[in-house]
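Example record

One chain of 70 residues, shown exactly as stored in the release files.
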Amino acid sequence: PTDEFINVIFNEQVNISSFEIFDATNKSVYKNSIGSQKNIVIKTDTWTSGIYFLKIITKKGILFKKIIKE
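Predicted structure tokens for this chain:
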């Protein structure tokens, strides 16, 4: 669970083109193209408590991860 921020760390071996975070109603709350970044800090202190989904787009496909905001 997170409260104030999320630290997203990308493995150098995985070629990630972009990622996006959605709330439970499928509304986008954050979107970013990676570029050369391997570590991104996202402030979540203004988000309401609940479940969010991180969508990671790579050359091999799409991966989803669940985020819980307290």
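Notes: The chain has a mean pLDDT of 87.
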